[in-house]
Amino acid sequence: MPHVGLRIELDAPVETVRDALADPRVMVAVTTPLLMYRSRAATGFPRRWTDGEPHPITARVFGVLPAGDSHVNINRFTLHGVPVQRDNGGGTSGVFGRMDMQHRMAASPLPGGRTLLRDRLDYSMSPRLLAYAMWPGLWVTWQWRAARMRALAPTWGARDRTDER
Question: Which candidate, 156, 143, 162, places its Cα nearest to that of 4?
Answer without folding.
Answer: 143
